[in-house]
Amino acid sequence: MRLEDYYDLEGTRIRFSRQQASDFAKAIAGDFNPIHNVDAKRFCVPGDLLFSVALQRYGLSHKMHVSFAGMVGDGVTLDFPHSDNASLSVCDSHGKACLNLKRSGPNTTDPAVVRGITQCYVQFSGQAFPHILVPLMSEHGLMVNPERPLIIYESMSIELDSLSFRSPRLELTDARLEILGKRGDTRLQFAVKSEDRVIGRGAKTMLLSGLRPFVPEEIETLVNDYMARKNGFMAGA
Fold first, then answer.
1. CB 201 within 8 A of CB 190
2. Residue 68, Cβ neighbours under 10 Å: how many?
3. Side-chain half-sphere of 53: how many Cα atoms within 13 Å?
4. Between β-strands 183-194 and 169-180, what pairing exists: parallel, antiparallel or unpaired?
5. Which CATH number goes with the domain that contains 103?
6. What are the 10-residue block averages of pLDDT along the chain, 237 residues in total?
7. With helix as H, strand as E and coil as C, how does the chain read?
8. Domain count, the chain
9. 0.85 exceeded by pTM
10. What are phi and psi of 190, to 5 degrees?
């Protein structure tokens, strides 16, 4: 993965085009959420792309927490400040924070280590729908609006025992959905492994909005449409 292919550097700021963000979502993350389509009316840059750039700019720390403060649209330029602070914010040209980062402990900027964690996390993150989220929604008898499925990436955290490893991979350890009226908070916990050893752990949280009673036929159609987009992309790749 050459991350520079998925953003443009404009002085000290970074900008993502629709095509770059959509290509990253599909080709790197395996995420076919229509909100990342080039022609989406409510287009959004994938949170995993923002996280990947943050790792590239700031390196990997023993303990990190990233939260997303809003959706980043087409043509928005972001300032990733040069900072060694434990807490920092990535803001748009109006000074509005889009990503907040907290970190602690030793840090590494080793390209191989950073790239390894970036790739395995993004690939894990992009598989949340339908493989993890649909069974969770079925268990609770609720689902997102199939006409406008709104699943918002809220935050991720990771804590590593060591920054010296190779060929890392992520494995899901727990998945929970807490219902709050018509909203649902989802928490996916994972273990970070290298050579069959657990070297860390972390979690991804998402917000499911506009929940309604679960209708198997409607979910089946939603999943089939999603997989059709994915298979079509893979066939043309």
1. yes
2. 20
3. 25
4. antiparallel
5. 2.40.160
6. 91 90 94 89 92 96 95 90 94 94 96 94 90 95 90 94 92 96 96 94 96 96 92 82
7. CCHHHHCEEECCEEECCHHHHHHHHHHHCCCCCHHHCCCCCCCCCCHHHHHHHHHHHHCEEEEEEEEECCCCCCCCEEECCCCCCCEEEEEECCCCEEEEEEEEEEEECCHHHHHHHHHHHHHHHCCHHHHHHHHHHHHHCEECCCCCCEEEEEEEEEEECCCCCCCCEEEEEEEEEEEECCEEEEEEEEEEEECCEEEEEEEEEEEEECCEECCHHHHHHHHHHHHHHHHHHHHHC
8. 1
9. yes
10. -145, 160
Where in the sequence is the domain holding 144, given as residue range(s)? Answer: 3-236
β-pairing, 150-160 vs 142-143, is unpaired
Buried b (16+ CB within 10 A) or exposed e, 134-162: bebbeeeebbbebeebebbbbbbbbbbee
pLDDT digits (tens, 9 = 90+) for 65-94: 999 998 898 888 999 999 999 999 999 989
